Amino acid sequence: MWLIGVMTAGVACVTTWLVTPSIVRIAHRLGVVDHPGPRKIHAVPVPRIGGVAVFLGFAAGLMYAAFASGYVTNVDHERVGYWSILGIAAVVVLILGLVDDIRPVSFQWKFIVQVLAASTVWAAGFQVHMVGVPFVSDPVQLGWLSLPLTVLWIVGITNAFNLIDGLDGLSAGTALITTTAVAILALYGERNAVSAVSVALVGALVGFLRYNFVPARIFLGDSGSMFLGFTIAVISIHGNQKNVTAVAVFAPLLIMGYPILDTSIAIARRLNTIRTDAADRGGLGYMARNAYRVFLPDRGHLHHRLLEAGLSHRGAVLSLYACALVLAGAALVLVVSNSLAVAILLAGLLTVLTLAFFAFVIVRSRIAVRLREAAAAEVPQPAPRSVTPGEVLGQR
Which of 12, 118, 124, 152 has the fewest CB atoms inside 10 Å of its own CB, making it the most exposed? Predict the structure, then answer.
């Protein structure tokens, strides 16, 4: 099984590595590129349909794993249709993102399709149906709350990976770290199907990062970020529901900690902006009419803050990789130890590290602002010169 796992990742990696240059050429030929703009970091048009390349490599690796392991012919395996529904739903999300990459889709339609896809996989059996509670021996059955909580998790993580896709390699690299953690936890919990899906995704992402890391030749686009977020969200809950102890239930939250944190801050910031604007523009009525602004892009994400703090593009990406690695490592320790004392210790440590991270960003930002102001003050201003009457008449 270990050999099959390595070969699965290898097939996915090589496939993505080989097809990505063709996807780049096709995107340039069709004009499906992301143009530079005020919110953009890049200075030249870059193809934005990298999700297609990731999906092709992922599918190739998964097909190899299915046939090499005998999964498709073994009568004792989990239902093929069970996983086929996940595949179909993930492809629907991929297509939704691809359409948005080519011609923008409103956020309302995005949410409708995402909710339908999440509800479909819930109906197929990918559910958060029970959770562990500290100091309670038996897990708590969610009952009817299972559907809204599962849909909220899947749709939330899908959009979280989309929101962090603002620097070269950031979303893909974060997805690689989180998927690796999911694969390890699935192996630890003897969830072979989840392991196969995770390993195939890991291989595809390794092959794609060759072209997506700084400086990127191709972006994931909405097709890639939403496909990754959707798939990772589903397999993370499926791989974790076998172990629903009070501490293990927090593992998916830690694994997705960075995307969740960035998305939560973005939503809170935008809601606060709307609330502030509504103070003298109509109150609740203004807030209701402008609620859509929560979904509008801006330059307030963590990666933008790191750039404003003076970090280079590569430095900002690597810093956020480190955050994702720390959180993923904490999740692995949490599950393996299965100890409430360890969970409390990790919670305290992660709180301190999070506060230190934000303090670092704030301090660096203030230093960077002061340096820019000092540099601007040192620039000599051109001396005023007299203007002749003839020049005045010419300007008129």
Answer: 152
Q: Say if residues 128 and 233 touch (Cβ distance below 8 Å).
A: no
- The pLDDT of 344-357, averaged and rounded, is 84
Does 388 fall in a domain? Answer: no
Contact between residue 195 and residue 4 where contact means Cβ atoms under 8 Å apart: no
How far is residue 24's CA from residue 33's CA, in Å, rounded to a whole number? 9
Whole domain around residue 267: which residue ranges? 2-372
**Is residue 378 domain-resident?**
no
pLDDT (tens digit per residue) in 81-92? 667 888 899 999
Contact 246, 340 (CB under 8 A): yes
Distance CA 320, CA 306 (A): 9
On whether the CB atoms of residues 232 and 179 are closer than 8 A, the answer is yes
Q: Please tell me the predicted confidence (pLDDT) of residue 134.
A: 57
Query: What gap in Å lies between CA 303 and CA 364, rounded to an integer?
Result: 13
390 located within any domain: no
Question: What mean pLDDT comes out for the span 293-305?
Answer: 79
Going by C-alpha positions, the residue among 226, 51, 297, 253 that lies closest to residue 153 is 253
pLDDT digits (tens, 9 = 90+) for 10-61: 999 999 999 999 999 999 998 888 887 666 666 788 999 999 999 999 999 9
Query: How many domains would you assign to the chain?
Result: 1
> What type of residue sits at position 97?
G
Amino acid at position 348, single letter: G
Residue 336 has pLDDT above 50, yes or no: yes
State the amino acid at position 338 in one-letter form.
Answer: N
Residues 146 and 126 sit within 8 Å (Cβ to Cβ): no
Find out whether 233 and 65 touch, Cβ atoms under 8 Å: no
Q: What is the per-residue pLDDT for 153?
A: 92
pLDDT for 396 equals 37
Helices 107-124, 146-163: inter-axial angle, 10-degree rounding: 130
Q: What is the rounded distance in angstroms from the CA atom of residue 1 to the CA atom of residue 65?
A: 10
